[in-house]
Amino acid sequence: MGFTRSRFLGGKPSKAPLLLPFLLTVLLVGSQGDGGAMDNGATERIAEESHRQDSAYLLIFIMLLTLTILTIWLFKHRRFRFLHETGLAMIYGLLVGVILRFGIHAPQSMSDVILGCAVNGSPATLLVNVSGRFYEYTLKGEVGQGKGHQVQDDEMLRKVTFDPEVFFNILLPPIIFHAGYSLKRRHFFRNIGSILAYAFIGTVISCFVIGLIMYGFVSFMKVVGQLDGDFYFTDCLFFGAIVSATDPVTVLAIFNELKVDVDLYALLFGESVLNDAVAIVLSSSIVAYQPAGDNSHSFEAMAMLKSFGVFLGVFSGSFALGVVTGVVTALVTKFTKLRDFPLLETALFFLMSWSTFLLAEACGFTGVVAVLFCGITQAHYTYNNLSPDSQDRTKQLFELLNFLAENFIFSYMGLTLFSFQSHVFNPLFIVGAFVAVFLGRAANIYPLSFLLNLGRKNKIGYNFQHVMMFAGLRGAMTFALSIRDTATYARQMMFSTTLLIVFFTVWICGGGTTPMLSFMSIPVGVDSDQDNANSGALDGSQRRSTKHESAWPFRIWYNFDHNYLKPLLTHSGPPLTATLPACCGPLARCLTSPQAYENEGQLHDDDSDFILNDASVSSMYADVTVSTDASGSRTVNPKHSSTARAGGGVGSFDEGLDHELSVAEHEVAIRGTRLVLPMDDPVEAPTTVTLPPPPSPPRSEPHRHRL
Amino acid sequence: MGFTRSRFLGGKPSKAPLLLPFLLTVLLVGSQGDGGAMDNGATERIAEESHRQDSAYLLIFIMLLTLTILTIWLFKHRRFRFLHETGLAMIYGLLVGVILRFGIHAPQSMSDVILGCAVNGSPATLLVNVSGRFYEYTLKGEVGQGKGHQVQDDEMLRKVTFDPEVFFNILLPPIIFHAGYSLKRRHFFRNIGSILAYAFIGTVISCFVIGLIMYGFVSFMKVVGQLDGDFYFTDCLFFGAIVSATDPVTVLAIFNELKVDVDLYALLFGESVLNDAVAIVLSSSIVAYQPAGDNSHSFEAMAMLKSFGVFLGVFSGSFALGVVTGVVTALVTKFTKLRDFPLLETALFFLMSWSTFLLAEACGFTGVVAVLFCGITQAHYTYNNLSPDSQDRTKQLFELLNFLAENFIFSYMGLTLFSFQSHVFNPLFIVGAFVAVFLGRAANIYPLSFLLNLGRKNKIGYNFQHVMMFAGLRGAMTFALSIRDTATYARQMMFSTTLLIVFFTVWICGGGTTPMLSFMSIPVGVDSDQDNANSGALDGSQRRSTKHESAWPFRIWYNFDHNYLKPLLTHSGPPLTATLPACCGPLARCLTSPQAYENEGQLHDDDSDFILNDASVSSMYADVTVSTDASGSRTVNPKHSSTARAGGGVGSFDEGLDHELSVAEHEVAIRGTRLVLPMDDPVEAPTTVTLPPPPSPPRSEPHRHRL
Predict the structure, then answer these.
(1) B128 to chain A: which residues are within 8 Å by CB?
(2) Bias regions of kind Polar residues — which residues (chains A, B) (predicted)?
């Protein structure tokens, strides 16, 4: 046992004990041990000097971001679309990395004295007594063997290296929350089945395909003698999991600008948002896969099952926590008059959303996943309770946080290609990885699309499939997952390779999106209102009925949500007194907000996105009426439903259309409700239709449900 | 030299080498060294456990803040004014502190093995080799002697203790920036002389008075034998400096709500904003006071001079940096069309403001001070270049950050009373401190007010003075300064005492503000428009001429600012082509924004605060016209000037008034300009007056200046 006095460089501990560290903080490792005994003043001076250097290095990043912003402006100003801001941030990061690496040479002031000392443990805190003075040291983590002697020459590069946990605990949460909060729910829910298939099944397929291919490559490399360290099958699977997380930013920014078909947008966005969550949980489950005994890299059914259990447990736990905090926030904002004070409201919203993350982490779940579902819940319920001022504030706040975090991560990525000290670039592995990533993505998209198209009448065309294949960029999440642990040889090789994959996909695939879209003749400039009309080549009514069939769990959920959850959690929707059975009268009255009664009259006043959302869903029901009941309403319905859908965009629309929509919605909603259980009491249905919309049309509905 | 394996508790290092740590991060010290040899898995599990605990403890704070927000809402809802949100946050913090301290007992798992080891230095990073595994330790700082053996029982309390640098590098900057950014410039500049006097001279007086009184007390305590450690005169002065920083939040929140006299508001707000900066720099200068040789606590002229030099250097350096980054931001926002993209603009604004802090810290200046002046500059120039959307966004962003940071600090203060491990409550010292703080404040306010009243015709009445005396609360800045260094006995005693002072002033003085105002018969419910009319009992015209006389350096500055800086840095003001001498024509044309020419026509369209600001200053000039030139314009002028002032509030006003003001301003501005140099060419003056306002009235001005 020896007490080694040396410097720790490069390889980071797999999980730093100091966590949730802010971007500012963790310019890794204190440094400046000038050696020799120091007195109090000297220690202080060193601390001060360190503080100044840290500030200076952080300033580099701020300047990088500033530069990026100005260049982005120039690009947007000149309508130059081939390079997205994230790609730009990476380029600037690269340049600064090159300068730091090759341009500036810091004087070496190393003193690698190794002192022997008898210690038989590694406590969290050490007190070192030097000539009667005590210095405190805290445990950073374990260092990979052999690292201790590896002396890097450039200290500065080490200083611009952040603790990888920064990415997970500071930078990713706002990005992921923003993704959830800005999800366009209407198109998302319309394609929910396909999105879930791509995100869950697809990511698992991709993970295993990449893992298997990489295992083949690695085995080959072992035979050829190209591999300098261990690389197990679990490592391959882990690699598969981390590179299966696709990043929405670049492609979707372009899609948004070009107004690409909304269904394609929804599929890609929904997939990339959800598969981030899947990839995180999947990778942590793979890490948790540890067969009993010493034989730690063989296959074992029990361990496999345990990993699967971990996956399910962590995912559902995070999901539940996210939803619960979202619901609590909705309840709090509903039952207090906090909306009179937008500042308080915004602060509460921010704190509650943040507490989701902390709560999940404290419970051992995954904060980032919880935050995603919290974001979706907040958007679905809480957003409706906020004052208009707070709605703007929260949106803008998270938009800003997202923007800063994203560009920070990407510029850091560029920088890290040169500043990271333990790169392992293995040409064979890199080639293998590119092939595997390509095939993994293909194995996700094409077979799943084929299967989905069997059930889906609104077929996902080949051009859509090619674009989805092409648009599978890897970004922030992949980077954060791969930099989290770079302690072993295998992980270092993975990290370096991942970095190259991110560069390639962001620059080549991201930059090629616009040409790709025109090459694939994807309709561009689509107003989201006319989306369905433009996806042509499909039989309208047939598609609609399919949608009905495939969406039945969603429909049950929609009814429940619309009749009970929304009235309970928000000011919108029908009053609970109308939807709950009569026996719950007093409770319903107490839980229904006064606004809900007014809503009945003027239907969801300040909640335009929701009107449209509802209208869209309702129009689906109306379509159903066409296909099954196919009576005289045939001629009336399509008009209504198309009107409803035509106004379905989130963009601007005038008051007149709004009112028309409300009426249309009510009518079709009633028809739809009738349709869900068409054989129950066909006599009662017509009376429901003739009821005037405002007072309490869905009154009889719960009764029917209970029939 | 021994290698002590033990736990570090309580006393914090004087300057942590890891800095700028986010609130999340630095739940101080890793802990959980369960002793004994650990394998890799165990280390990881410990790190994970630590992460979970940290999240849980941070969650406590988030919950505290949430609770505070809800209670604040209740208070505001019920118009309950005796307890401000900060006071409330402290109470909740106290309660949680009590629960943590006495309610929950964590099991003790201590292993205080002390291991001997020969080390002759304290490097920044230690690598400990335990059975072939390397563990990395980083230097936290030096520990006060004797601390090493002091074993505290409650580990949990230690876990909820943040690194004090968090306050300085994360929480204070947004608070201070917001103070600068939200400064009501009109009233501030009107009282600039008095504010500077209170902030600079007053704070220095207060610091020395408190220091001297405390030195008396401490000497007495030494004689009585009540003092257990060293307490030098520099310590007393340091104490004086930190408790001289008054906090605006509580009182000003009430003032704002009650619409108290704007001059009183401006005096208090201006003083408390600026004296924070003075107190920081003063305290660091006192720390820098180190006489040569070993005789480190005697008086020495050279060291004193050096300290004074440090004060001047740090203050002016920080000031310059803050202003420079503000100006750069203004230029960037002016010369790019960034305003088309509010998100980019807001991000740039945020990053530039943050970079001020980092730049100042990197240069060895004080970031917090730089940020204050940056905030003022941004408000004065950049704000006018921002798009209306960005103006809202930036205001709301910093409002939110300020709110969160402030309440976090105050709830932490409450908590720390019980959770801090090294409190030294010395009754004599506490009594002495309260007396000293009271007398120090009195020595600041009353003599200075007397002196200022000699020069000021708009006398600061006794009731105003009493309120200013009473409203000298101590808050976030005092706390942050005192917790920054709690290594020595003297500093611990100061910290504990400071905490009590903050509690007392926030609860008693803060809560007593409303009764105090009515007792002192301070006019409440004053519309800021009619401020001057209501401060009655003063001779109007006499006051005006005094204002003219006392404000001459400000007037020169105003002319320079209005004619050159504002046109150069913003879209408002007269075009530079009109104000610069003809020889600079091409340069002026290139620097003047197209909007400036339009401004000439419709004068400062989207910049209402500025119109009013200008109008107010101009009306001052108009008054001057009355007192010196006192000709026929006597009857015309007061009307104009009173109109201008009547519209001077920042509140709402209609377009008509706006236009009237513009005209009034133009007229009086011209008269004012004439007045500055009344004997130059009295013949030309009337022709200037008769010029129609829009095209280019100040054209001839530079010529006159050069006469």
Answers:
(1) 3-4, 119, 122, 126
(2) 630-644
Q: Which of A14, A138, A344 lies at the smallest CB-CB distance from B72?
A: A344
CB contact under 8 A, A33 and B138: no
**Prediction ipTM score:** 0.74
CA distance B76 to chain A (A): 9
List CB contacts (< 8 A) between B400 and chain A. Answer: 343, 346-347, 350, 393, 397
Q: pLDDT of A588-631, one tens digit each?
A: 777 776 666 665 544 443 333 333 333 333 333 333 332 333 33
H or E element in which residue B433 lies? helix B427-455
Q: Dihedral sign, CA of B334, B337, B342, B348? A: negative
Distances (CA, A) of B701 to B368, B551, B576, B671, B687: 39, 21, 12, 11, 13
- Is the separation of the CB atoms in A321 and A356 below 8 Å? yes
Buried b / exposed e over B544-570, threshold 16 CB at 10 Å, is: bbbbbebbeebbeebbebbbbbbbbbb
Tokens 């670039």 found at? A425
- CB contact B396 to A (< 8 Å): yes
Per-residue pLDDT band for A552 (boundaries 50, 70, 90) equals low
Q: Do A141 and B136 touch (CB under 8 A)?
A: yes
Phi and psi torsions of B331, nearest 5°: -65, -45
Is B147 in contact with A140 (Cβ distance < 8 A)?
Answer: no
Rounded CA separation A118/B481 (Å): 40
The Cα B30–Cα A139 span in angstroms is: 7
Kind and range of the H or E run holding A584: none
Q: What pTM was computed for the model?
A: 0.75
CA distances to A46, A119, A206, A212, A236 from A436, rounded to whole Å, are 48, 46, 9, 9, 11
First to last CA, chain A: 77
Partner residues linked to B617 by β-bridges: none
The separation between CA A92 and the C-alpha centre of its own chain, rounded to angstroms, equals 25
Which positions in chain A touch B343 (Cβ < 8 Å)?
Answer: 396, 399-400, 403
The A residues from 284 to 343 touching B (CB cutoff 8 Å) are: 332, 336-338, 340-341, 343
For A269-291, the pLDDT digits (tens) are: 888 888 888 998 998 888 877 66
User: What residues of chain B lie within 8 A of the CB of A392, using their CB?
Assistant: 392
Best of B28, B125, B159 to mutate (most A CBs within 10 Å, chain A): B125
For residue B301, the tally of other CB atoms under 10 A from its CB is: 8
Q: Which of A76, A92, A137 to mutate to test the interface with B (most CBs of B within 10 A)?
A: A137
Token representation of residue A525 = 């400039």
**Of the candidates A343, A352, A399, which has its C-beta nearest B399's C-beta?**
A343
Q: How is domain A164-291+301-528 classified at the CATH fold level?
A: Na+/H+ antiporter like fold (1.20.1530)
Query: Among B88, B79, B181, which Cα is nearest to B407's?
Result: B88
Q: Positive or negative CA dihedral for A570, A572, A577, A580?
A: negative
Give the angle A46-A49-A55 at the CA atoms, nearest 5°.
140
Phi/psi at B135 (5° precision):
-115, 135
Residue B353: how many other CB atoms lie within 10 Å: 27
- What is the torsional sign of CA B558, B564, B565, B569? positive
Helix (H, G, I), strand (E, B) or coil at A471: coil
- Does A43 sit within 8 Å of B141, measured CB to CB? yes
Interface of B with A in 66-95 (CB under 8 A): 66, 69-70, 72-73, 76-77
CB contact under 8 A, A55 and B362: yes
For B354-384, the pLDDT digits (tens) are 999 999 999 989 898 999 999 999 998 999 8
